[in-house]
Amino acid sequence: MLRSRTFWQQRSLHSVARLLLVLAVGVLLCVAVGFILASGEFARYDLLAIALYLGLAAFAWHPMTAAFIVMFISSVGVVFTGSGGDLLELAIALSLVAATCVPWVIVTHAVLLGALTAYVAIDGATLTGGGIFAIAGIAAIAFLAGLAFRLVAAREMTLLAERARVVEDLELIAREEQERIADELHDGIAHDLTLILFHARALPKQPDEASRQVSLSTIEESAEQALESIQSLLSLIRDTKTEAPGTHLGRYDGRVLEAISSLGTLLEDAGIPTRVTAPNDPLQISPLAERLLTEIAIEAVTNIIKHAPDSQSASMEIQNRPGAVELVVQNVASAGPPRSKEDGASGGRGLSRAGQRLAHTNGQLESGRTVDGWILRATLPTAVHPGSATLR
Known about the structure:
Layout: H1 15-39, H2 44-57, H3 63-81, H4 84-100, H5 103-123, H6 131-202, H7 209-238, H8 256-269, E1 274-279, H9 287-307, E2 313-321, E3 324-332, H10 349-360, E4 364-369, E5 373-381, E6 388-390
Parallel strand pairs: 1-2
Antiparallel strand pairs: 1-6, 2-3, 3-5, 4-5
Helix pairs in contact: 1-2, 2-3, 3-4, 3-5, 4-5, 4-6, 5-6, 6-7, 6-9, 8-9, 9-10
């Protein structure tokens, strides 16, 4: 820590030390005024003493300015009065300089103290016997005391910074957990509830028993899936251990080709003729990227059913293109006026979060209205691009 630049930077006194310094200077000023009143005269030395005390008090607010004030006043006192008391005060002030000022000011203070001590020892009679050693010893003790105060202040700053970092990390973890729970609610339960709501509304209008059975079957399956999602969400909330990345596969086990085939069937059951196109060869992307595409496909189909249930047709296409895998989902809207929020996918939470996830894997997500409907395009980089074939 002693080699750290942060340790030697200029710093202010601790609030407690500042209060004690002001109280000590107040006592010294009271004593000086008492001596002046007792003697009945105001000598030049008294003026220097009061100025020196005020300079010491300035360490509570402006340490650098205070250091030079003390050095100047002490130098004047030593040169004009030859007083060893000024040397003693300058040596004691080294503790404040060492505790607050930058190294070059500390060195300047120490060099000045040494030069004035030598001057008094050579030309004056104040320092006799071991006076030089006494000044040196007091200066050394003062410097070590100031260094100790600086060390305590530096450790306190380090602890405060560490505490702030820990608080920030905990807040980040809490936000991530909230996002995980919100994603689980949106990606799983919202999708199932949308299917339940759609088929529950369509059930009384179904023209034949076969269509009613499809709706009833979809409602039952979606309700069971929603219940499983709620149980999974409760487990996520109760579990104190963080789930390892990649352990949760999600719906359709994260297999996007299986997902778009099943989702195409869902759209067909909802009365929307749907074409599904997928490549003959396996996708050359990571399991994480494939899971992201699966979630995006689910979100796109959910939005079509929720916001454009009267669509004339829809299509889902996934292809291995040169250097990328591309998923395209689009619908052709009905001739009537569009429902509110039909374009909600372009600004809703689901695709907004999906876009953020894709960005982490160098992917890209685009969605918005077209002339006759709505389109979503998700692209993930890869190096393989075999042919494709139509599944439906």
